[in-house]
Design goal:
The protein has helices spanning 6-13, 68-74; strands at residues 24-30, 33-38, 46-53, 56-65. The protein is of the alpha+beta class and 83 residues long. Strand 2 (33-38) and strand 3 (46-53) form a beta hairpin. The longest helix is centred in the N-terminal third of the chain and has 8 residues, at 6-13. The protein binds zinc ion. Zinc ion (ZN) binds next to loops.
């Protein structure tokens, strides 16, 4: 698990990837938390488990890299960033 800086938290709060700044797409939700996947499928591939409460990010966890198959299942708006 990666420790995130304050700036990283701000990016996640805005639903952007802390590593590459591109938008995150919404993945599966479980309870109060939801997985978010980075739309940069070229050189990032990261995913995060985030919990928002009243619009504020209260928990974040880096969940590692997301496979193409897993990403595509949730990329309903076709936000996949191509080269
Ligand atoms: Zn990214």
């Amino acid at each position: 698990m990666t420790q995130l800086s304050g700036r990283d938290r701000q990016r996640l709060q805005a639903r952007c990837c802390p590593f590459c700044s591109l938008p995150l797409i919404e993945g599966p939700t479980g309870g109060r938390s939801q997985n978010f996947y980075c739309s940069n499928r070229v050189d990032c591939l990261n995913g995060f488990n985030l919990t928002f409460y009243n619009g504020e990010l209260i928990f974040q966890q880096h969940i590692g890299t997301i496979s193409d198959a897993q990403f595509r299942r949730w990329d309903k708006d076709r936000k996949w960033v191509k080269q």
